[in-house]
């Protein structure tokens, strides 16, 4: 060992950090650590990404990240390379490569094995290595035992990444950080680093396996919570009374149980993103490997994955009921990214919705999303347009993201551009009752997830 004991980060004037995997999460972690005084080297095999970062540019659509990268590169605290040997100069190595869903609905460990194998020849005694990639329990210890510790006596821990797209920088600066090491020294060293550099609460657990399960538990809870909201919304739509599911959820959330209130999330047109669409399956596969047939992971995924088709059915039924053939219909889709005010399109539920439209013969579809770059849109086979052009003559407008850019579109704007009697389907912007009543008074038909019985009720309230 080099003589460095756990908890001595405060005694070192130098904090050199290598972040292996400089994509969405790696870039956020690296840029924030640089802003907190570390010298950070991002290591990634994507030569174009490395070139962009080295030039002070960040192509990733996270609010505030481009500015932070530019500032830290200019200050000399942040750089990037494709050379894995760069980890040799680091005190802390953070691994943030992707762990996609395999064809067998388990974690594909190919990237993390490759990353650990690539850095193994360059690690040395005393380095702290923290895995932040989402993995099933047992992977951190496996990487240590099979790949990294045979090379050097490194300290190794798992620390789950729990950042939400659109607010990742702020969350990394304030959320508690969970750490579990392969031994007590590893836990202490990793915990001490995060405490000193980030200044946030650090929750030390007794093993990397416990820390690995923390991340899966978080995303399982979120996915199941959204599935509950979706099923309540489906029920509200199916019942013969004017029930607004948002009122139901707001009322339900006023109940305090123990130290916390009920916290049902809001329904929408589906669930997207890199984490929620795969992490529950990791739990399901983990159970199967250990003789358990868990029920909730698959149930939540089934409910949430069905929502784009449900929205398609609502739009399709409306247009056919009023005699508009798919070949003649014009449909405006506002929002393509999977999350409001984020340009992140990974596993967006809007993609299967658009595929369903295409399969049904709807050719006149215009998509608007000002948060998505032209380059990103092209990667998804899209040609985006402005909202005005999208709305012009549309028989239906489907609002799939609640972007701030869409909120100024008022009743007058709809009336001046949409076809008479058009459908306004609210997949995520959540118009209030006054707005819904005004839309109906203007001759439009309002439908929403869990709110499809509202318009007549709203009119009666304002008659």
What does this entry look like structurally?
This protein has about 475 residues and is of the alpha/beta class. It is built from 18 helices and 15 strands. It has helices spanning about 25-35, 45-55, 65-75, 110-120, 140-150, 170-175, 185-200, 210-240, 245-250, 280-290, 295-305, 305-320, 350-360, 375-380, 385-390, 410-415, 435-440, 455-460; strands spanning about 15-20, 40-45, 80, 90-95, 130, 155-160, 175-180, 200-205, 255, 260, 330-335, 365-370, 395-400, 425, 445-450. The strands form 3 sheets. It has an 8-stranded mixed β-sheet, with helices on both faces. β1, α1 (about 25-35) and β2 (about 40-45) form a beta-alpha-beta unit. The radius of gyration is 25 Å and the shape is globular. The N and C termini lie far apart (about 80 Å). About 45% of the residues are buried.
What tags apply to this protein structure?
disordered N terminus, 41% helix, disordered C terminus, 5-stranded parallel beta sheet, alpha/beta, 8-stranded mixed beta sheet
């Amino acid at each position: 060992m080099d003589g460095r004991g756990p908890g001595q980060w405060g005694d070192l004037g130098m904090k050199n950090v290598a972040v292996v995997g400089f994509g969405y999460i790696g870039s956020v972690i690296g840029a924030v650590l640089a802003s907190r005084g570390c010298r950070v080297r991002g290591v990634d095999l994507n030569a174009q990404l490395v070139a962009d970062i080295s030039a002070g540019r960040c192509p990733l659509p996270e609010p505030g990240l481009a500015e932070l990268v530019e500032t830290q590169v200019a200050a000399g605290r942040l750089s990037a390379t494709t050379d894995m040997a760069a980890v040799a100069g680091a005190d802390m190595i953070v691994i943030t490569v992707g762990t996609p869903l395999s064809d067998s609905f388990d974690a594909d460990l190919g990237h993390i094995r490759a990353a650990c194998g690539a850095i193994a020849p360059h690690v040395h005694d005393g380095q702290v290595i923290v895995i932040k990639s989402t993995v099933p329990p047992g992977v951190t210890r496996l990487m240590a035992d099979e790949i990294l510790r045979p090379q050097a006596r490194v300290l190794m821990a798992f620390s789950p990444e729990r950042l939400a797209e659109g607010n990742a920088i702020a969350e990394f600066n304030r959320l508690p950080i969970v750490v579990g090491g392969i031994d007590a020294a590893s836990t202490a060293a990793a915990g001490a680093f995060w405490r000193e550099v980030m200044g946030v609460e650090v929750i030390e657990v007794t093993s990397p396996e416990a820390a690995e399960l923390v991340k899966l538990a978080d995303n399982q809870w979120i996915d199941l919570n959204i599935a509950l909201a979706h099923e309540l919304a489906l029920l509200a739509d199916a019942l013969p009374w004017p029930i607004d599911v948002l009122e139901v959820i707001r009322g339900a959330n006023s109940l305090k149980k123990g130290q916390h209130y009920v916290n049902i999330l809001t329904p929408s047109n589906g669930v997207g993103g890199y984490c929620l669409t795969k992490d529950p399956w990791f739990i399901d596969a983990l159970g199967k490997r250990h003789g358990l047939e868990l029920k909730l992971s698959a149930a939540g995924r089934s409910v949430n994955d069905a929502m784009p088709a449900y929205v398609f059915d609502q739009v399709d039924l409306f247009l056919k009921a009023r005699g508009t053939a798919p070949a003649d219909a014009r449909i405006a889709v506002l929002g393509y990214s999977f999350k409001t005010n984020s340009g992140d399109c990974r596993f967006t539920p809007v993609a299967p919705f658009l595929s369903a439209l295409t399969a049904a013969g709807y050719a006149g579809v215009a998509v608007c999303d000002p948060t998505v770059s032209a380059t990103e849109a092209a990667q998804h086979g899209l040609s985006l347009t402005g909202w005005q052009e999208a709305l012009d003559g549309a028989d239906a407008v489907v609002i799939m993201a609640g972007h701030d850019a869409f909120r100024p579109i008022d009743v007058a704007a709809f009336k001046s551009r949409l076809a008479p009697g058009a459908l306004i389907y609210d997949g995520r912007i959540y118009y209030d009752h006054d707005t819904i009543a005004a839309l109906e008074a203007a001759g439009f038909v309002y439908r929403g997830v869990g709110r499809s019985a509202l318009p007549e009720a709203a009119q009666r309230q304002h008659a």
